[in-house]
Amino acid sequence: MADGGVGSVTGAGFASLRPMVAPRNVAVIGASDDPTRIGGRPVHNMIRRGFAGGLWPVNPKRDQVQGLRAYPDIASLPGVPEAAVVAVPGALAEQAVDELGRRGCRAVIVFTAGYAEVDEAGVAAQERLVSMARGHGMRLLGPNCLGLFNAPLGYFPIFTSSFDNGWPVEPLAGRGRVGIASQSGAYGTHLFGAARNRGIATPVLITTGNEAEVTLGDVIGWLAEDDGVEIIAAYSEGVREGPRFLAALEAARRAGKPVVMMKVGRSALGAHAARSHTASIAGDDAVTGVVLEEFGVHRARNTEELLDVVYAATPRLYPVRNTLGVVSISGGAGVMISDAAEELGLPMPPMPEDAQARLRALIPFSNPSNPVDCTAQVFNDMSMVGAFARSMVEDGGYSSLIAFFTQVGASPTLAPKLRAELNAVRADHPDRLWCLSVLAPPERVREYEADGYLVFEDPSRAVVALAAQGRFGQAFARAPRAGLELPEVSLPAAAPDEAEAKRILAAAGVPPVPEATAASMEEAVAAARAIGFPVVMKLLSPDILHKSEVGGVMLDVADETAVRANYERLMWNAAENAPDARVTGVLVARQISGAVEVALGITRDAVFGPVAMVGLGGVFIEVLRDVALRRCPVDVAEAEAMIRSLRGFPLLDGARGRPRADVAALARSLSALSAFAVAAGEALASVDVNPVLVLPEGQGAFAADAVIELAARG
Amino acid sequence: MADGGVGSVTGAGFASLRPMVAPRNVAVIGASDDPTRIGGRPVHNMIRRGFAGGLWPVNPKRDQVQGLRAYPDIASLPGVPEAAVVAVPGALAEQAVDELGRRGCRAVIVFTAGYAEVDEAGVAAQERLVSMARGHGMRLLGPNCLGLFNAPLGYFPIFTSSFDNGWPVEPLAGRGRVGIASQSGAYGTHLFGAARNRGIATPVLITTGNEAEVTLGDVIGWLAEDDGVEIIAAYSEGVREGPRFLAALEAARRAGKPVVMMKVGRSALGAHAARSHTASIAGDDAVTGVVLEEFGVHRARNTEELLDVVYAATPRLYPVRNTLGVVSISGGAGVMISDAAEELGLPMPPMPEDAQARLRALIPFSNPSNPVDCTAQVFNDMSMVGAFARSMVEDGGYSSLIAFFTQVGASPTLAPKLRAELNAVRADHPDRLWCLSVLAPPERVREYEADGYLVFEDPSRAVVALAAQGRFGQAFARAPRAGLELPEVSLPAAAPDEAEAKRILAAAGVPPVPEATAASMEEAVAAARAIGFPVVMKLLSPDILHKSEVGGVMLDVADETAVRANYERLMWNAAENAPDARVTGVLVARQISGAVEVALGITRDAVFGPVAMVGLGGVFIEVLRDVALRRCPVDVAEAEAMIRSLRGFPLLDGARGRPRADVAALARSLSALSAFAVAAGEALASVDVNPVLVLPEGQGAFAADAVIELAARG
């Protein structure tokens, strides 16, 4: 299978799953003669679906299993099994994995449960399984997984009962096929069943269970490289492994394959339920969310939306500049669609004026702007529908179209005319995403789908699904994320104090508020001259903690004369109020006023590594949790996009009569901070640069305080 | 029909629609022999559905219409028609309405289009129709409407082609019936068709078209009082008439009938499309939204959600304290449901500890908290499902339950056992909302529905629908809104200045910052003593606009001695800097610091009258548009709920180390302001009290500025 078909893989990254997903032969350890038992279902399914490779049941108690010759043990198998299902309990499973490895098996699919999902002993047993598999160079799926299927090969090493209700279906001509990658077996097969009921082809399903060795990233990566799959649907309760997951998403993006993902646990209650269900260390949900966004993955809010987006991806049209045109026999439905489109940011530009005039001449009371209301007049002359639709495509140029015809789509008298009119336009413009919103029985829907339409009863659902296709197009069109040049970083052994933290960050490209220390009056004058007036002057003394209490802070120092006078006052105040303190000089700093306060930060996600954060100071972070996150490093353009995504961004953009702030400078600091975090590596636990004072455009953004925390040494 | 059945109406408010919706006989003006023509469809449908009353086609050219005796004109009808359909064009329609009125007809349903939706001449023609109808004491539906149906009577004065795909269905035993009130005919019949396809009974549909006389409020009110309908689904592009709409929603609430509404035009694009579609003056969308909320109406985001909520209302169980219990064979589905429930505020309390222990003893690896994951173990012993479900009802006490069994619900071997187990528990507890989330073909779904379950393929949709039922319960349980005692208000002839505005509002119960004018030093001292220190002192002069420029503002005046000294300084500054100004004394005001700034306001909605607004000052209103609105008047408890609903509320509640603010005082001011707005009547255009300075708890909230705008005199 390495040379073509569903199992063929281009590129190298994820090809090591080939023996697991598309093997030449497969052994079933613990095969049962009863086709409804866990060890019986895979054998039964592969017999029924005609798996062409070797299918070798292992059962010490029987000569035959479901009519196939059975083998008493692994040693007596007629050849080296490329893959094996392990469906025997506890210690026997461990023994089987070991023996399979010794015989040269390349992949094991472990159904057996009772591992890390149960208790500490299970964790230890699971670790033993993994180290055995690794020792033998085998890939291992599960344990505690439902298995997988690769339908075109008739390969069904899976114990679901879903096939009672039907097998995976073939795609309509020209439509894409969907690969399903799911941590949960129950949910993965639910998705397969729901997709099948909607006529969506899902040739491959792989469930990962405990993900002891093969993770969701491996599976998505396999699907990204599998020529038998054009669209990827995934389910996760928590991503456990970063690098392969990221590589897989990038592989899918490069291959132009949309990934639609259900990641549960976004709420506190859900996250709690997820933890008690999987007992796994997973990346923070919000961080996972921004990682998915980074790669253009559509994160679905529920199963229906996941299937809708997958379904709308099957025509494999991903318009980079997506616009929506709507033709409707109900003005109200047009309004509803407009509401949904605006909320999703899917543009609905109006029809050109001259085209509107032509259409208005055809149907006098029509409203051919966009949404185009062609009114019930079309029932008298269905050729109007064709004329309107053609004008929308050819004059309006929309990449996505929704035609709302509700029950007319099922009307015995009107539907055939409607279909003929639309098909004539569609035939000339197959490069558009055509949606019909009709109320029709399933057999009529299947006809429209065979014609090439997407069919949605609810037009609002169509809008969500169409908007997603444009975002896929944009993600596919993006250049791969370029590596940033990383600064040289050498962190100190112990956590640096504020001044040292600022120096470290300054060296990395995050400028602090300009300041200098001065040991004498003339040094202070020179420093102030270099920094620019007005300045703040502060006593420098290791013995004085609260400078303002001893009169050790002078604000609004406007010129050189004032520097001199204030230098003397500071020394006098120190002598008067803290006679025993050692005074080493003064700190001269730029006095900044009228700045917008912003916080920048770095945290380290358990799975995805350093994450950059930006938020506006004050109520925005503390009360409104208005922050933008992104995996490090971020380049300056990405940093600016993060800043612009803040709800409070108008404050930086001239709201409330302020001048526009120096967003470019802030973006440079954020990007530099993110590069610093990557360069610093795992020794860095977090950075908090708060506040950064952002001055008006062209005047810069300066860190006024900074805290760097180092990781506890392991 | 007034004496029983679908047409019977209790109460008086909306009974005047009886002759239109449930007449003893009906004339069809412009009746056609062709059953597919606009004038033919009503006759055809009523013949087919056996309308028992008189059905009198009027057609000057034929003796018979579709086998019925036809009459040449209105004068020759065999009796006075209670209702009449008008399906003749333009001037003929006007003439028909007039003649019908003269004969004593009580209700006309005008299909004819070309009125206010078209041009100015149409507006005038529509006004003539209405004044004719009013003159004759007739109710008028439309013009430009699709008509209505009242299926139990076989009464179908409507020209839709929807019945090609099926008639309204009967409800399952015990399930509620749905009345549809829709401005749009196309959307109303779309809703009917989609409901029918889901097995939902919709005995009554009324479309209002141009709403020249009968409005959506009339129709909702009729349905609220109609014994043949227990649930109301409504569609509007913009509510045009306030009082009857409000009375209708209150009638529905009192009758315990949920109203589920699609109100389109929530986005700017949608609102624009709605305006160009209906050309009507309608209330602001946001105001309409809060009015719907006030009466417990569920505003659906799309058609699917509307139908889901209506469907889940059919068991007519509206738990006031709604809690959700989830039993699942997929841990992941449980997490997904938890995410959705938390976002919708539907509580999922855990099972009691002892019950969890009992369940864990039944299935060792189960996780019986809530969601309750009973694992695939139940496939070996389906009695476990019964045991788990019973414990959830009896020990967990949940009012709503979701059982996620995906394809098991369709499995030939497992589904019958599952059904029997659940039915046994359900039979003992029919007072719970039971949802099955299964992947099953329609015929299997119908079986579960007949058993009493709600069935949703997607469990997230079930959560939305279940959460809505609890909110209905809460709305039904609320005491009717009590009238507030209104203040005596006499507005001045011209817009008042700030001081007068504050005096007017103070008299109405909105206290301003304490202040007093003083004409002498000793008056100033007495005023300061009464107000409490520290105070601010300001020069009072009609000739000085910018007081601070002449040294006319003194802050932080701490005691009586300081009052005297500052009084002298103010007088000296005036003499020095503004020698020609007339000085009438000083203003002494409480100096307030550490307050949270809040804005209160009143605007007048074109449809719903005065609307109260509250928002936090600064970025919250200007950048984040974080405001709460409510129709006036609001009592103190409602006012406090508005304040607590603000995203920025934590700032009033002790965030960022502040003391808690005097929310009670702020709520009193907001309530008083709303009562003032009602009392002031239409002469009042708007009020802006900004800022209100809210001090720490127990110290009050004071208006620091106020603007009152009067309505332009008509």
UniProtKB/TrEMBL annotation, chains A, B:
Q: Which domain of life is it from?
A: Bacteria
Query: InterPro entries per the record?
Result: ATP-grasp, ATP_grasp_subdomain_1, CoA-bd, Ligase_CoA_dom, NAD(P)-bd_dom_sf, Succ_CoA_lig_flav_dom, Succinyl-CoA_synth-like
Q: What Gene Ontology molecular function terms does this protein carry?
A: acetate-CoA ligase (ADP-forming) activity; ATP binding; metal ion binding
Q: Which Pfam families match?
A: ATP-grasp_5, CoA_binding_2, Ligase_CoA_2, Succ_CoA_lig
List each copy of the ATP-grasp domain by range: 502-538
UniProt keyword annotations, A-Z: ATP-binding, Nucleotide-binding, Tricarboxylic acid cycle
GO biological process terms on file: tricarboxylic acid cycle
Q: Which PANTHER family match?
A: BLL6376 PROTEIN, COA BINDING DOMAIN CONTAINING PROTEIN
The family assignment reads: In the N-terminal section; belongs to the acetate CoA ligase alpha subunit family.
- Entry protein name: Acyl-CoA synthetase (NDP forming)
Which source organism? Muricoccus roseus
